[in-house]
Amino acid sequence: MNRPNQTETITHLLNSRRVYEPSPIFDFNPYKAVNLPFHHSSHLGTAWSQQVSEIDKLDDERQQLRIEQSKSLDQLNETKIKLQKVREELQNLRKTRDGLNDTVRALKQTRDRLRDTSREKLATLRELLKKMSDRPHASIAEKELAALEWQVQTSPLEKDDEKRLMTKIRSLEIRVTGYHKVLKLREDITKQREEADQIHARIQEVATESQKHHADIVQLSEAFQTLRLRREEQEKTLDDLKRRTADTNQKFLQLRNTLTDDERREQRQKGEALKEALKDTAQKKLSKGGKLTLQELSALYEGTEE
């Protein structure tokens, strides 16, 4: 049976890496401080500029963490795919090995049964040989038996001579029958021993093949454990990146909202100061009998309503 090189398969699974290319969606971020309206406000002070610099730093860190998180997720998915592949290969190897082991067990039962039967027949043969006073060659005994039978059939014999020949014929028949039993037992014993030896050789072949599969299983199981540990480490890394990304994103949003609120408050204060200036100008013009602009009139009117 030809099988793929297990070492090459494991080495490929453990060492293969995919080159990660960051997605172009990270190239531009509309929420980066430089892309927000308040970033270009001319009235921002030093503290404000420091906050803007900090939000840019947080945004860069957030985007970098997202890239690392995406890369970590890809690596984790690759490891999971490899784990699944190794798991399936292990299942196939174990199934094949177990099938070979079942074959070995069945062959051993057949071999042992043949050996037991041959031993029983050998014991029967020995007992039969012990009972035989002499062991004439079958052909000699058969020829002698045939001659005596022919003599009885063709020659006129006295009653005593015929009785003597019949007794000798019966003795020869017993001897020939016993010798045929011996031959049959020897033939059966030899045949069963040869068959048992052939099965034993087959057992060794199948057992060797099973051992090779078992060695592959042990080696692949080690690779599986290595991949599983890698997966656990990658899951921890990904969880840590998610946590850091969430923390950084929260800081970014809090600072961005703070800057936006400060911008709105400053704009509102600036508008109120402008209204007061227009109102003051309008009052001075009125005291001198001058004409008011629409803005001055509006500021004066709103001030009156208040």
The oligomeric status of these chains comes to single chain
Kindly state the mean pLDDT as a whole number? 76
Strand content: under 5%
Question: Which structural class should the secondary elements be placed in?
Answer: mainly alpha
Instruction: Please provide the ordered H/E string of secondary-structure elements.
Output: HHHHH
Structure notes:
The structure is a single chain. This protein is an all-alpha fold. The protein has one domain: Helix Hairpins, CATH 1.10.287. It has five helices and no strands. It has helices at residues 6-15, 46-131, 138-154, 159-287, 294-305.
In short:
With 306 residues, this protein is an all-alpha fold. Helix content is 83%, strand content 0%.
Q: Which key terms come to mind for this protein?
A:
single chain; 306 residues; mainly alpha; Helix Hairpins; 5 helices; 83% helix
